[in-house]
Write a structure and sequence with these properties.
The complex is a heterodimer. Chain A is 0% helix and 54% strand. Chain A is an all-beta fold. The chains are: A mainly beta, B mainly beta.
Amino acid sequence: QKEVEQNSGPLSVPEGAIASLNCTYSDRGSQSFFWYRQYSGKSPELIMSIYSNGDKEDGRFTAQLNKASQYVSLLIRDSQPSDSATYLCAVNPSRGASKIIFGSGTRLSIRP
Amino acid sequence: DAGVIQSPRHEVTEMGQEVTLRCKPISGHDYLFWYRQTMMRGLELLIYFNNNVPIDDSGMPEDRFSAKMPNASFSTLKIQPSEPRDSAVYFCASSYSPPSGIYNEQFFGPGTRLTVL
């Protein structure tokens, strides 16, 4: 079992709709969770971080965390063509660990 | 702030040659990470440093890879000898550990695209 799993996609969503990206992780002791966006040929950039169960909203983005189910998701409302990218889920595996483990990423395509 | 700086941005070399990748982290950051990204394997952590000291090098694929951080503003990743399977994008990232202890985000450099012929 991979430490951080994501559906590789591609996920195709019409413009203006909600895009839902999902991620599961294996380490129950994980404390910090991140979503990075990576455009083709560019480096990853952080778009959301979440540390507590529940929802965290930032503009059109909402991160959801369920530690009991070891599940974290990212919702993108009113999807725009500029949201087309690969989204990487990342997990800090346990308290005190100084590294994060990345999933393989989900490729998102917003169709006009 | 200039962000994380990496050089070169592109490197093409022949099998057997030595390759040195360079990274300057964001000033004030105490963690530095080296990653490798390929289509097949995704983003892999190779090694990371805290206050210039290597903490975990378990991701370094083999003895041909080595990394150093002689001071807080400079790190190198060296491959000697290079092989075609080393072709990938190599990213450097840095972060700082706040007093709260909550894990902080990593900021990535633009990457070095390495091609070994």
